[in-house]
Structures are given as structure tokens and as C-alpha cells.
Amino acid sequence: xxxxxxxxxxxxxxxxxxxxxxxxxxxxxxxxxxxxxxxxxxxxxxxxxxxxxxxxxxxxxxxxxxxxxxxxxxxxxxxxxxxxxxxxxxxxxxxxxxxxxxxxxxxxxxxxxxxxxxxxxxxxxxxxxxxxxxxxxxxxxxxxxxxxxxxxxxxxxxxxxxxxxxxxxxxxxxxxxxxxxxxxxxxxxxxxxxxxxxxxxxxxxxxxxxxxxxxxxxxxxxxxxxxxxxxxxxxxxxxxxxxxxxxxxxxxxxxxxxxxxxxxxxxxxxxxxxxxxxxxxxxxxxxxxxxxxxxxxxxxxxxxxxxxxxxxxxxxxxxxxxxxxxxxxxxxxxxxxxxxxxxxxxxxxxxxxxxxxxxxxxxxxxxxxxxxxxxxxxxxxxxxxxxxxxxxxxxxxxxxxxxxxxxxxxxxxxxxxxxxxxxxxxxxxxxxxxxxxxxxxxxxxxx
Length: 447
Description:
Layout: H1 11-14, E1 19-22, E2 25-28, H2 29-42, E3 48-52, H3 57-68, E4 72-76, H4 82-92, E5 96-98, E6 119-124, E7 134-138, H5 139-153, E8 161-163, H6 170-183, E9 187-189, E10 202-205, H7 207-212, H8 215-220, E11 226-229, H9 236-246, E12 251-252, E13 254-256, E14 260-264, E15 281-282, E16 286-290, E17 299-306, E18 312-313, E19 326-334, E20 340-345, E21 350-353, E22 356-359, H10 360-368, E23 373-383, E24 387-396, H11 401-409, E25 420-423
Parallel strand pairs: 1-9, 3-4, 3-5, 8-9, 8-10, 10-11, 11-12, 24-25
Antiparallel strand pairs: 1-2, 6-7, 7-18, 13-14, 14-15, 16-17, 17-19, 19-20, 21-22, 23-24
Helix pairs in contact: 2-3, 5-6
């Protein structure tokens, strides 16, 4: 299926071939198409429509209806504070706000604009470095990215997709909700936690969800075809446990709000061992290069251009250079098989200490190899002498500090050793389960 050849963004929906089940409420076929058509009619004439993105069937219908009407949907996180919500509504210039709209009406959907440069979504960033920025995602990018993933993952209408992802982010909304409405695979949203679903063949999750699944639930996934992860680093311990209990290797893909899918393994390649940390090769339609190097084993900032790229940040200067390249802020390296491995964020995971450049991920991996350490996060904190010093936050089961330091010294060069180790009950995380590293320094003092 090629995005440029399909006249509608959500063909399976328009043709009555879609089915969605969220929180136990189901709409399918012509009933679902009619609900979306009625919603589209209710927002006719609006340019931008904010949708409070609850994990509900009304949210999926609302976003699909706004897109079907040719307008732009602006998802709002349901737990956003008053100040953040007011900023998003003001910045986006939303004409309407939909919060769990009534779905009783039915109507034929209007003619839908093709997958072109027309804005489909404005998705707001976390705002960790200032007020949230609006990422303008065109219809063209959604179609191209979903079609590329369908090809790589052999994702067809015969699949049943299950996930528990928030509907205010790319993974849960674009891949996990609009994907089924484009491809025609039924969707079952399992609520807050990822749980087995009868007849489900594909599961989407994030590392925190995969890591929290019980052994019995993982064993029930043995009948699935594909398990997909994204949004954060996937720890080896999690992948090994999932593989041992379910029999499946997790497909670890790479995407961003600004770029949609960047890189992914092919589903057909999962029977072979991939290099540790690999997120696969660039997806069709996307180009990837590393700033400053294309040498295997050398790292640099990941830069991207191609069909899945956003139009820019709303009301801000262009985000791409003259040749169309976007700097992701992620650090990566090419592996010998030509796939990409991510090393962390440029702003938080590249530590410059005493003239050395230290990857936080390498230190985190060494910490996680210790049997008492359950979770680990490493950042550089300001230091008058070194510029930055290596600091670690760990969730651990009563670690012997002297033994831990000795353990790390056997695995890391002296300049990479943490000069601070904080033991905490939990690491601060975002709604998608990513470690919120900007909050680490406020968590605790060394002990």
C-alpha cells in the first residue's frame, strides 16, 4: 500500500473495514464510519480542533472525525495542568475543544482531503526545555510512515492490534490508532496496562510496559506474531525476559514526534539475533546520517530527512537546514550490519568531563549488569573542576556500595565511574515511561 496512491488518509475507515475496541466499548464497520462522519459534520468549518485524549473510543472517533473534516486535530493530554492546557489552546489557536463527545449520531463522511501537506495534527512536546512546542504533522507524513511500517512489519487487515498506549502521543495515536483505521486491522486498547487479548497478533508497548508485564501474561503472548517497542531504550534484561517467557524477540523501532518512524527492523529479520541496542535500518522514504561521521562504531547526532518529516514547529523558525535535514538531538552510531544504535540524548546523555566525552548509556549498562540494580539513569552534573561529573541514580535492592563501586571499576575506565550514586525508590518518568532526566538532580542526595 503506497501513501501517494491512496486518495484518503484513512481508507479502511471510509470503506467500513475498521474496528476499534477501547475500554470495552466497540464500534466497527459502517457504524464506526457513521460515527466518524457525524463527528466530522459537527466540526465543519473549524480549522483547528483540540481533542482531550482520554483512553477512550470517543477520542479515536474525535480525532478521525476532525481529520475526515479536513481540519487539524490538537491532542490534549487529559492530565495536563491548567497552565499547560491554556498555553496549548492559545498557541494552537483552537476553534473548538472536544472532551468525550457524544457518539450516538451517524452520518456519511464528507469527501476527505488527500494525504498532502495539509496539517493533520499539532502534537505538543513535553516542554522540558521551555513551553511546549507545537509539532505540525502533515497528512502526507502520516500516510507515508504508516505505509512504511505496514510493509516492514507485514501489518495487514488480518492482524489484530493490542496496546495500552496514551492517545496523546505518536505511538498510541498515530501508529496505534490511525494505523488500524488506515490498514484495516482491528484495534483493542487494553487500558492502563498491557494485557493479553484473545486473537491479538500484534502488540505495541514501551519498555516500561514490557518490563512490568507478569510472567503469566507474557507466556500468553506466545500465540502473537509481533511485539513492538519504542519511545525509550530497551534494556537487555527486559528483552531477554520477554523472549524467554513469550518466545518472541521484541521489535525495537525508532521514531519521534517530529519525524514519525525513522528506523525499524523488518519483522522477517527477528528470527536472527540483532546487534545489542539496534533499532534497525532507516524505514523506506527516510534518510539518516550522523553528524560528523559515517564510520562504523563512531557516534554523532542523528539527522533525518524524508517523507515522514514534520512541517515545522508552529509559529517558529524553520527546523530543517537548507538541504532538508532535521537534527533530532539523539546520539547514534552505525553498527557493522548497517543498522543504527542509539546512544542517548545529546543534551543529557553526552557527558563532557575533564576533557573526556562519556556516553551515559554505557555507564547505565554497567550499573544494570549488577544483580542488585533494577533501574539506572546517569547524567552529567555541573562541576567547577571537571566541567561535568558523572552522577548516577539507581533503584536497587539494598546494594553494598563498596561492592558496587568495585564492580563498576572492573567494567569502566576510571574517568567514566560515577562520582555520585543516589539510591532512590523510583526514577521520575514521563507519561510514556521515559526517564525524566531533567528531574533527576532534584531527587535526592548521595547516601
